[in-house]
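Dear all,

This email documents one entry for the complex benchmark we are building for the journal club exercise. For each entry we list the sequence lines for every component of the assembly. Then comes the predicted three-dimensional structure of the complex as a token string, followed by one or two observations. Please use this as the template for your own entries, and keep the labels exactly as they appear.
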Amino acid sequence: MYVFDWKNYNSYNIKKERLMKLKGCVWKFSDNVNTDEIIAARFLTTFDSKELGDHCMEDIDKDFPKKISCGDIMVAGKNFGCGSSREHAPIAIKGCGVSCVIAESFARIFYRNAINIGLPILVCENISAQIKEKDIIEVDVSNGIIYNKTQDKSYKTDKFADFMQEIVNSGGLMDWTKKKGLAK
Amino acid sequence: MAYTISEKIFNQHVKGPKVKAGEFVYAKVDLALGNDVTAPIAIDQFKKLGAKKVYDRNKVVLVPDHFTPAKDIKSATQAKVMRDFAYEQKITNYFEVGRMGIEHALLPEVGLIKPGKLIIGADSHTCTYGALGAFATGMGSTDLAACWATGYSWFKVPQTIKFIYKGKFQRWVCGKDLILHTIGLIGVDGALYKAMEFSGPVIARMQIDERLTMSNMAIEAGGKAGLINPDKITYDYIKKVCAEDYKGAQGKKKWEVDTKKWDKLKSDSDAVYDQVIEIDVSKLEPQVALPHLPSNTKAVGQVKNMKIDQVVIGSCTNGRISDLRIAAKILKGNKINSKTRCIIFPATQAIYLQAMEEGLIEIFVKANAVVSTPTCGPCLGGHMGVLARGERAIATTNRNFVGRMGHPGSEVILSSPAVAAASAITGKVTDPRKL
């Protein structure tokens, strides 16, 4: 069996304070980034976050995992994470050190998966046109505010639906399920 | 009050007052499916949750189809994790290699899908089952684990886009062309978070195999589900699969075929839709989706001199018996172009056997095509037909993203079995009407 880094896996809870306010350098992506691009199927024979992280975004930008620093932020256009249901996609993004993904919209399954495993994701209209690659931004996840240090501008993100906020606050779906005492 | 089929199915699975589109619900799940890629993460999460037993061992389905027969040690390990879990939990619907098929072709065939069921699967093409009037949607592994532990999952009841298809298909045009055309029309996020409902006289005449193809690709437009109201064609299919004692279905219960109950599932005529789109299919030509998005569709006649290195006929989208019959009709007495490889993979063992009995396999082999065991392998660049840099494939599969079938510098064109088979003969993208 592969060693799986569970401590980091559910970090929404564990590192709540650090994660609620994020700061990092922006890496930009276009519309319709699909899960095959985030992590190609040839790497799906494991779900080790480090191993997957080493191949994150490889088919778009081979050096992506090498050139980013821990805490950096991905900013994308519409329909981020479309395609397959592989949870390996948000795991790979977390595994390579990205702290948060901001997009104009997310594909449905990716959106669920990210929330379930505690990868912070935010929806922000027109964000792609306003933030440039390499901008330094600060993200206040709990209040939904993005501050662009480079440009000295702020943007407001969409709110989670109350039901989803509850899952986010619990630290992901598993902790929510546990807290509610739903498991048999 | 008027309801869509999606709303009706959710209302049968939640307690309390009736729900409508837009509401969040915590609903009872009838089937929860995983495969050798997604189940290992779900099993890990399930154990981490401290859960001891799955909520119902007859309602969990496990199919090792992606990297099986195991392509390497790592994939063998993943398959073993799933197998061990299946034995430990005494899962009735675990389908070992030899009994298995590509999950979305297998489940309907062994009678596990029926109208009105609420189904989740850790595989995006779970939406296939909407063709039989079930509400089925793809999710991730953690969602699957939570469902195994509780029997429930949370959903937002989706708005619905209704498609009404009118007119008559031209020769060689089929459901695959229609769904590609539809995705081209609304885009890869055209139905994001929404259910697609396929209806109209074209659908009323369409047989189950083609309906499954259409619902299968709802996800390629971002759709949460792709539904077809159950009708006589649905009921006849279900009666047929229930009557057949297919040996692959383990622990299959005797089926009640309750058409009266299922009739009531149909969307009400005054149900509220987010959008209604009417499409006349009469002038629709065979379609292709060029790299690198399923929405990048064109009539095949517009594509000139595009060389093909590999043809792939099969998958959960087009690996059913009627797809193989179409391919055989075109390939019979012909040879695959000497500079092209053609890989054909029947989607299940039963389809394989039927293709053999009908003489289709012989036609394929004589044409110099390769016939493979059922597997998802080539579709996602896993194994059994991976592309090198600079190579181009035409495939009856569902995705043509960058690197989908292998090297990021390779290309995939999506098409129907007829276009793929015609292209195999000429070695370039070909309109079957012009052969």
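Observations: The first strand of chain B starts at residue 24 and ends at 28. The first helix of chain B runs from residue 5 to 11.
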